[in-house]
Design goal:
By secondary structure, this protein is of the alpha+beta class. 27% of the residues lie in helices and 28% in strands.
Length: 228
């Protein structure tokens, strides 16, 4: 987010390889218990498939690493991963607890070979990623009639879908329609806008897109309203 001629750091990311985690879990199912908090260990025990177990562990590790980078930058210290706990939550933005005390919201996304975590001290956050092995959703079942004429490639569809999912996570309201409540527009300079039917929860949201290796990453931030 630009501030004059400087760029303000709004958050921190981390990603982990799901393939590497899956191999370690297959070799030793309890390999990661030492870096999980108590509620995470309980939740991981309810993952009945290797895929779900891998995604759960990978997402938690990515979010914890993102928080650790932020903590190191602003406090000079880096907490142990086992002191952090990210229990399952009904909300799309899970809370991070440090030694039982809530310290902020994170966002987790996984696709294909990667899990990504995003953390910011500035407000409500969301991240969504799609790997290059994405199956593709460039059809009328996933995009509005306004968007379809602008979708020429699989990459165009991936970018738009991550933006929609990011808005869904930020809004965190029942009945959010990914097709009608988040309509994406792009001008010739690759500037993106999401509009049409967006709920109040998304007003003032800042969205960004970048490429990270094989991943398309969309990130969103809603800063709290400051009273005058």
């Amino acid at each position: 987010m630009p501030s004059g001629n400087r760029m303000q750091v709004v958050g921190h990311f981390a990603r982990v390889s799901l393939e590497a985690i899956a191999r370690k879990i297959e070799a030793a199912p309890h390999r990661f218990h030492g870096v999980l908090g108590p509620r995470e260990r309980e939740a991981s025990g309810r993952c009945v498939t290797l895929k779900r177990h891998t995604e759960f562990i990978g997402g938690r590790l990515a979010a914890k690493l993102a928080f650790s980078v932020a903590a190191k930058k602003y406090t000079g210290s880096c907490p142990s991963l086992s002191s952090l706990d990210i229990p399952p939550a009904e909300a799309s933005a899970p809370r991070i607890y440090y030694q039982g005390i809530p310290v902020g919201n994170a966002s987790i996304s996984h696709s294909g070979r990667w899990a990504v975590g995003f953390f910011s001290f500035l407000g409500r956050v969301a991240v969504d990623v799609e790997d290059s092995i994405w199956s593709g959703r460039a059809n009328q079942h996933y995009f509005s009639q306004v968007e379809l004429p602008q979708i020429c490639t699989e990459y165009d569809a991936r970018v738009r879908w991550t933006l929609k999912e990011c808005c869904f996570k930020l809004a965190n309201i029942p009945g959010f329609d990914l097709i009608q409540n988040a309509v994406t527009f792009c001008d010739g300079a690759r500037n993106w806008v999401v509009t049409a039917g967006c709920p109040d929860a998304l007003r003032g949201a800042t969205l960004g897109i970048f490429q990270w290796g094989t991943l398309v990453v969309s990130v969103g931030l809603v800063e709290p309203v400051r009273e005058a």
